[in-house]
Every structure is written in structure tokens, then in C-alpha cells.
Amino acid sequence: MENRKKILVIVPAYNEEGSAGKVVEEVHADLPQAEVLVVNDGSTDLTSEIAQSKGAVVLDLPFNLGIGGAMQAGYKFAYEKGYDIAIQVDADGQHDPKEIQKLLHALEVEKVDVAIGSRFIGGSGYKGSIMRRIGIAIFSGVISTIARQRITDPTSGFRASNRKAIQLFALDYPQDYPEPEVVILLHQCHLKMGEVPVGMSERYSGESSITKIRSIYYMVKVLLAIFVDCFKKPPLLEQEG
Amino acid sequence: MLFKIQIIVGVLSMLLLLTTFELIRKKRLREEYAILWLFTGIVVLVLSLWPEFFLSQFFAKISGIFYLSAVVLISFFFLLLIVFHFSVVISKLTGQNKDLAQRYALLEMEFKELRRRCLPPDRTPL
Hints:
The structure holds 2 protein chains of 2 kinds.
Chain A: E1 7-13, H1 20-30, E2 35-40, H2 47-53, E3 57-60, H3 66-80, E4 85-88, H4 100-109, E5 114-118, H5 130-147, E6 159-161, H6 163-171, H7 178-188, E7 193-197, H8 215-229
Parallel strand pairs in A: 1-2, 1-4, 2-3, 5-7
Antiparallel strand pairs in A: 4-6, 5-6
Chain B: H1 2-25, H2 31-49, H3 51-55, H4 57-63, H5 67-118
Helix pairs in contact in B: 1-2, 2-5
């Protein structure tokens, strides 16, 4: 399927030498028609070299920009190189590349602009810490209300976007807490999104960027960012020929 | 007592004005930031030259504060303006910095690709 479409898998990585190589290999194996772009967000370890040796295209940022800046760099690349579909996959290995087909299927069949992989529909049996689950439930409630659409897993970074969404993200991408904020951005720009049930595995290595102690602080900040986003002027998308 | 405070405040504001001028002259401070600092210096200088106004029945009545408190309060207000202005400028710079870093990375990648194609593999790049 989708033979003529140019597909890019964007893997943002910051000091992920332990798992980035494996993720690149898996994506190549499961989705041979796709190009893999590893965005090295100023890593101080061998992330860039390892990804390169596994056959990924590596975009080295000169210093650490954070997840938002790194993702947007990937989308700018996808936009300028004329990719039709961009899929973001975490470098820590929690997203299974075998599930990418489900995201692509949603883009093609359900005609959504962005397909979001969700841990919480279809009984995938996600077991996170209780704090995290409460936090995600609150985000989900707030974001679903604002977006007027049920979004069960707004913090999921496992997503596929079509050309229209790539164009939007190249132009404007939230910097601080991109996953939940992107949902609001898509709603403001009238792009369609849909959720797809996916399984997520344990992380291969590294710590989640959200530790237990900081989770409440994180939640308050994200809710504040979402609140502010509601008053931001959405960017104007130009029609592509 | 009042005279002493007048001198101190006056000297401080003059120092502020002179430093600002000097930094502009040496191009170490951009004019857009300097304007607020100059304005702050001038207002504080005026306060030190005409304390009578701030001691007058009129001002005391409408503000209910003493001279020194007035100086501190008004300086503080301008400092707030300056700090706020800085936040706005830093936000803008952060965005531009991010865009530059992304552009740099994309161009560097393109450049390496071009060089790899143009140069035979055994030749070291110039």
C-alpha cells in the first residue's frame, strides 16, 4: 500500500545511544519504504554516530533545543524535502514500529490529518504510575473539552501526519510541552485528528523526562500552557498547489 | 537629613545616566534598551533636584508618601518596566535562536551531502 507516497519517520533523540540504533533498525525492518530521520538534539553521547551507522539520516542540531524544537526541525526537513507523510517515533523504544501501519491506515481510510497512537483505547493494558495516569486523565478531560473531540491519550508522541499537518508544524510548533499543545493547535487550525489504539512497551533505556516529584509541577505548567494556547492567534496556512 | 538624601539620589542618578551614555557610545548597549534606562535616570535626577514638589502638601495629599519612599517607589516602577521589556526581548530572541539553530542544522546536512557527492572519497576536503 501507499507505494507512491514519500514517508519519513522522525526520531527525536537526546542522549539515547542505548536505544536509538535499535529503533532505527526496527523501523527499517518494519517499514522499508520509509526514510528514517534522527534529529540529534545536541546529544553529548554517540547518538548521532550510532544512528548514522544504522543507516538513518541524521540532523545534528548545534545545541539542545528541547523536544519541541527538535520535532519542528524534523517537520521542517519533511516539508522542504517534499514528504507526504511524517511519523514521529520516540528514540527510547516505547513505540513499536510495527504499529506504524495502523497510523498510516487511519490517515488513508479515515482521512484524518493527524493520527495519534493511544494507549488507552482497545484495552492495550497500559500500566503506568498512578500519578501519571491521573495526570493523563485530567489532560484528556481538559483537552477533549477544548477540542470538542474525545482524545484519550494527549501526551502520546506516537503520531502520523499528512502533508497539510507537516506544513503547519514546519510553520508553528509548540516548544514547551508539544504533545498536548499540538492537539489544541490542530483544533484551532481546523485540521482533523483521530486516535488509533496502539500498544506501547517499556522504555529500553533512560528515564522518562517526567519524574515522580515533578509530575504535579509538570501538570500545572501544561494546563497553564494549554490555557494560554486557547487565546493565541492560530497561524494562517497557505494553500499548497 | 533631606539634603543628604538629595545628594545621594542625585549622584546615583547622574552615575546611571553617565554609565548609560558611555555604554551607548562604546556600542555595548543598544539604543532600544538604553532609552528606558536614560528615562529612569532623568526621572530620579528630577526627584533629587526638586524635592519640594514631593514634600508639598499637594503631593503628600494625593500620594500619602514621604520623599525617599517616593523616589524608591518611582524608581522601582521604572525598573519593573525595564525588566518586563527584557522578558519580551528575550522571548523574541529565543524564538529567533531556535529558528537559526534549525536552519543551521538543515543547511549543514545539505552541505555535507553536497561535499560527499562532489569530492572523491580519498580526497580530504579543503
